[in-house]
Amino acid sequence: MASSESTPLLTPKRTPLPKFQLFILLWVQLAEPLTSQVIYPFINKLVGELPITGGDEEKIGYYAGLIESLFFVTEAFTVLHWSSLSDRIGRKPVLLTGLFGLTLSMISFGFSKSYTTLVISRCLSGLLNGNVGVIKSMMGELTDSTNIAQGMALMPVVWSTGATVGPIIGGMLANPYEQFPNTFGRFEFWKTYPYALPCFVIAFYCITSFFLALFYLQETVKPRQNAPGAAATSQQLPLRKVLTPRVITAVSNYSLLALLDIALRALQPLFYTMPIRFGGLGFSPPLVGLCLGAFGLFSGIYQATIFAPIYNRFGTKRIFITSVMTFIPMFLLFPFMNLSALHGGINAITWTELTAQMILYVIMDMGFSCAFIYVRSAAPSKHSLGATNGIAQTCISVVRAIGPVASTSLFSVSLERNIMGGYFVYLVMVILSASTLIATTFLPTTLWEVPDEDD
Question: In this protein, which residues make up the domain named Major facilitator superfamily (MFS) profile (predicted)?
Answer without folding.
Answer: 21-447
